Amino acid sequence: MSCIAIDGNSLTLDDVIEIARNNVKVKLTDEAVKKARKSRAVVDEFVEKEEVIYGITTGFGELSNVYISKDKTEDLQKNLIFSHSCAVGECFEEDISRAVMLLRANALAKGVSGIRLKTLNTLIEMLNKGVHPVIPQQGSLGASGDLAPLSHMVLVMLNEGEAIYKGKRMPGKEAMEKAGIEPVKLKAKEGLALINGTQIMTAVGALTVYDAINLIKLAEISSALTLEALNGITDAFDERVHKVRPHKHQISCAKNLLRLTEGSEYTTRQGEVRVQDAYTLRCLPQIHGASKDAIEYVEEKVEIEINSTTDNPLIFDEDKEVISGGNFHGQPMALPFDFLGMAIAELANVSERRIERLVNPNLSDLPPFLVGDVGVNSGFMITQYSAASLVSENKVLAHPASVDSIPSSANKEDHVSMGTTAARQTREILNNTKHVLAIELMAAAQAIDLRDESKQLGKGSEITYRSVREVIDELCEDRIMNLDINKSVSLIEENVIVDAVEEEIGELH
Question: Where in or outside the cell is it found (predicted)?
Answer without folding.
Answer: Cytoplasm
